[in-house]
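User: Let's play a game. I give you a shape written as tokens, and you guess the letters that built it. Ready? Here's round one.
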């Protein structure tokens, strides 16, 4: 008799806890969260509270850490003070009012002004890009700053790291940052730090997850930036990770996957902005403050390679999602043509609405994506949006498998009869993770020949891609639709 009473008591306790958690979640989770994210978390917690609640507490808190927010706020003040006298854009630039509005938006959100940058080349071939990096590192005189999300010392990158070692041997200060979780799964990651120390490189892991050392953080955060600066004079920025282009994993090798990336080489004052982003991240991980070199420029606005560029850092330290607002601004600016290139296109409501609205306004929208993404969940989450995109009139171009199109840029209205061109280029994908969970580095291109280079790059990608039609897409079966929709829910869990 007592056993039945005890069992009933525990059942009541369980029910009270379960429904208490659900009622609390309904009133707590939606606060300061996008509806799609709130709905996804509520669905998981309401159906699977034992699984959903621990995941929510571990991975979805809006609280990153007091230390990181403090550092970001201090950095914003530092950057703002250092550049207070610099105008929003070069004084001899006469921007279109919409472009000027974008520059002002980004200055407000990030404190970075638009400035001059000389385009020294868009490196779209993997081997050529690495070779050029080695050349620049071998010519370094004072210091080298490397901040790249994924790094692995393998056969492909061996010469780059040896070049860093040669630089250190001749007295060049080499500082290097790589993401802890981003690099952890690749062969040799556990020995990478020791190998770097052995050649004289001073290194730190970005966002280290080491609770036993008092360094606990949300395990889903990443520093996804790719920035390399040499002597404060030459900077590289883009999508290239320092790892073999097949990413070393057995499943990638079996599938024959090869990543398609691009880096831009720049000189001029924009390099100071890039170096400032590195300095903030270096301070976050090391506590060391770096003196930022003054802008290096000859003062000449050359018609060939001079660009007006604006650095747009983003990430959990910024509460206003500067990269997302920039992308949406560019999409709304487009009057005739819009090119979107992203390996992971998983838009939130605002971005999806902006893209489809552009189509309804008569803008031709070309979306460049991989035919088959490298991740199952991401691939199906992305393709869950194809129906709405195709119905709105988006032209979807699938870069053929097994290649992974990893380049990321937006380009609006390039061409003599297309209006005023503008672009964004860098490390940020167009997905919810890149807007809210990743630290990203993006360049707004407001003027210059980099706009031409990006247009030609997009045309090259299109020429080898496979068009996807609405008629073809409508032939997919029920289970494909079901899987896509389930994976779409997971993309909003942030």
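Assistant: Ready! My guess for every position:
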């Amino acid at each position: 008799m007592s056993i039945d009473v005890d069992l009933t008591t525990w059942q009541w306790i369980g029910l009270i806890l379960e429904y208490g958690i659900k009622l609390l979640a309904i009133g707590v989770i939606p606060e300061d969260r996008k509806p799609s994210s709130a709905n996804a978390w509520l669905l998981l917690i309401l159906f699977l509270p034992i699984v959903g609640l621990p995941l929510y507490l571990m991975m979805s808190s809006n609280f990153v850490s007091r230390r990181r927010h403090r550092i970001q706020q201090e950095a914003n003040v530092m950057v703002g003070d250092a550049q207070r006298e610099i105008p929003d854009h070069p004084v001899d630039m006469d921007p279109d009012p919409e472009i000027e509005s974008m520059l002002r938006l980004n200055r407000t959100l990030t404190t970075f002004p638009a400035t001059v940058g000389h385009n020294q080349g868009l490196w779209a071939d993997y081997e050529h890009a690495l070779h050029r990096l080695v050349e620049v590192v071998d010519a370094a005189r004072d210091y080298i700053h490397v901040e790249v999300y994924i790094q692995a010392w393998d056969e492909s990158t061996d010469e780059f790291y040896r070049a860093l070692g040669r630089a250190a041997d001749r007295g060049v200060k080499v500082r290097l940052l790589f993401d802890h979780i981003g690099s952890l799964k690749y062969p040799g990651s556990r020995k990478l730090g020791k190998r770097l120390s052995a050649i004289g490189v001073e290194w730190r892991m970005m966002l280290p997850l080491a609770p036993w050392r008092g360094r606990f953080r949300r395990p889903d955060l990443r520093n996804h930036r790719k920035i390399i600066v040499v002597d404060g004079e030459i900077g590289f920025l883009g999508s290239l990770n320092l790892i073999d282009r097949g990413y070393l994993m057995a499943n990638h090798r079996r599938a024959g996957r090869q990543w398609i990336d691009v880096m831009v080489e720049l000189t001029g004052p924009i390099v100071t902005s890039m170096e400032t982003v590195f300095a903030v991240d270096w301070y976050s991980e090391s506590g060391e403050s770096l003196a930022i070199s003054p802008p290096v420029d000859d003062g000449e606005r050359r018609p060939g390679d001079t660009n007006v560029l604006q650095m747009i850092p983003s990430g959990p330290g910024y509460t206003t999602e500067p990269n997302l607002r920039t992308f949406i601004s560019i999409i709304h600016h487009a009057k005739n043509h819009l090119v979107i290139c992203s390996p992971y296109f998983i838009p939130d409501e605002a971005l999806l609405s902006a893209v489809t609205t552009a189509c309804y306004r008569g803008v031709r929208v070309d979306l460049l994506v991989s035919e088959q993404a490298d991740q199952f969940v991401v691939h199906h989450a992305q393709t869950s949006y194809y129906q709405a995109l195709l119905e709105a009139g988006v032209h979807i171009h699938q870069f053929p498998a097994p290649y992974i199109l990893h380049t990321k840029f937006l380009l609006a209205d390039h061409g003599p009869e297309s209006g005023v061109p503008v672009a964004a280029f860098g490390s940020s994908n167009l997905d919810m993770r890149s807007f809210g969970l990743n630290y990203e580095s993006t360049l707004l291109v407001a003027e210059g020949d980099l706009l031409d280079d990006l247009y030609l790059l997009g045309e090259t990608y299109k020429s080898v891609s496979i068009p996807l039609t609405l008629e073809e897409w409508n032939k997919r079966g029920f289970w494909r639709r079901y899987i896509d929709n389930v994976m779409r829910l997971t993309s909003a869990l942030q």
